[in-house]
Amino acid sequence: MADPNAIAKQFVDFYYTTFSTNRAGLQSLYRPTSMLTFEAQQIQGETNISEKLTSLPFQSVKHQITTFDAQPSTVSGSLLVLVTGLLIVDDNTNPLPFSQAFQLIPDGSGYYVQNDVFRLNYG
């Protein structure tokens, strides 16, 4: 298996760059069985997940990644990736701390997101 941290870095860079520039472009990372939990709201399937991400109520967003950790998971070749960082929306000067976990499943020469859990970290 390739280095989990190298795969995670490549995924994290792609995911958050795409999130900032073209949220609709993230749909290809999900499948019909994929699940997103966004602030306790569960959404299943690539179309529903894409609709959720593209309907978030801000015009611009930037993720400042603080840490990411990766480890092999139960399915052969799959990875668990945990990301922490700061979220800057629109022109807000107060960044919001967040954490996000991804379960990445091998799919041909790449990976898809089976599970995605996002949470803002208040107080």
Describe the 3D structure.
The structure is a single chain. The protein is an alpha+beta fold and 123 residues long. 22% of the residues lie in helices and 48% in strands. The protein has a 6-stranded mixed beta sheet, covered by helices on one side. Strand 4 (79-89) and strand 5 (96-107) form a beta hairpin. The protein starts with a helix and ends with a strand.
Q: What topology, given as strand order, has the largest sheet?
A: 2-1-6-5-4-3
Q: Which percent range describes the beta-strand content?
A: over 45%
Helix content: 10-25%
Number of strands: 6
H and E order: HEEHEEEE
Number of helices: 2
Mean residue pLDDT: 94
Largest sheet: 6 strands, mixed
Give me the secondary-structure topology.
Blueprint: H1 4-21, E1 30-38, E2 41-44, H2 46-54, E3 61-72, E4 79-89, E5 96-107, E6 110-120
Parallel strand pairs: 1-6
Antiparallel strand pairs: 1-2, 3-4, 4-5, 5-6
